Amino acid sequence: MQLEQYDEAIKFYKQALEKDPQNGEISARIAKALLEKDNRSLGFSVLQLMPGRDIANERHFRNPIQNRIYELAQVMRNIIYLIVDEATKFCVVVDACWDMDGIIRIVEEKGYHIVAAAVTHYHFDHVGGAPPSPYDTLPIRISGLATLLKQLPHIKAYVHPEDIPYIRQANPTIAGNRLVSTRSEVTETLEIGKTKIRFIPTPGHTPGSQALLVNDCRLIAGDTLLCGLCGRTDLPGGDRKVMERTLRQTLGSLDDRIVVYPGHHYGSEWSTIGLEREKGCLGDDLVGFGTISDDTATITSKSSEHSSSSPSSLASRFNRRSWTRRRT
Question: Where is the composition biased (Basic residues) (predicted)?
């Protein structure tokens, strides 16, 4: 979509909102269009692919196992990301999982070229592998990073070194030279065209959790920072004290206007550091810290509170032209 097309869409949505001022869905569409326009004006795009909506949505009566996998994918509500440099059409796939054919099909339809993969953390719903109970009773493995690297032999995956052993254990077919540690001076940043991605260690959910900061203004946070919540620390590899330090020091020091893209869609597709400081886990009281459970309804309700702001209010939070540094 060209920038002027965003203007047309925003105008249309605003006209619709005038007729129905209380329609939250229209407000969300306006805010999302403003965000996507801002991204494009900065030379990149961030695409969110969701199981059941964009991928993992085909059903085959002759393939019941795949159908069960896709059912699980929709329950998990993961978000897979494409970071696209608009000038070159090169892109990085983040947390490729569930449906590699579907992901690659979308990339090809849009004329993009995958040049790298990145992983926020090693859990099965982000990299593939064996599913948890009750799905582990079936002889299945979830398509993920191993499948992507096999289908695209020219790319490598950027992973924090603390999580590499877990990924290799669950995916032994991945050759060691296909996983790149992000903690060296050479690999702690990745540039595709004029788009720069910086890997930020965010341990707590797993030892090697990492966030991706795109052009210093967009943060793909994985399961460390969700909208109104943070990732669980009661799973294997989780550490509550480490997570608190990550929230207070690492993410808490970021600029308020940085947009946050979460690893799961629990009611909101994006937030900002400032909003998370006001209503979420980055405030002094760490609201929402340690509250995540298996109760999806509760999680979704908490996360959806972030969708109640007006489009203009949300847009003002990430308007990069008026950025000022909150902290140094």
Answer: 318-328
- Do 73 and 103 touch, CB atoms closer than 8 A? no
58 and 18 in a single domain? The answer is no
Claim: this prediction has a pTM higher than 0.70: yes
Residue 50 lies in a domain: yes
Alpha carbon dihedral 250, 117, 119, 132, in 10-degree steps, equals: 160
DSSP states of 245-294 as a string?
Answer: HIIIIIGGGS-TT-EEEESB-SS-S-EEHHHHHHHSTTSTT-TTTT---S
User: In the predicted model, is pLDDT for residue 293 greater than 60?
Assistant: no
Q: Residue 109 is part of which domain span?
A: 43-279
Higher pLDDT, 189 or 136: 189
Boundary (domain end) residue, out of 279, 302, 322:
279
- Contact assessment for residue 78 and residue 126, using Cβ atoms and an 8 Å cutoff: yes
| Contact criterion met (CB below 8 Å) for 125 and 76 | yes
Q: Is the dihedral of CA 233, 212, 315, 112 positive or negative?
A: negative
Whole-number CA gyration radius for the chain: 19
How far, in Å, CA of 25 to CA of 45, rounded? 22
Q: What is the residue type of 31?
A: A
In this prediction, residue 28 carries a pLDDT of 81
- Three-state DSSP class for residue 8: helix
Number of H-type helices and E-type strands within the chain: 11, 12
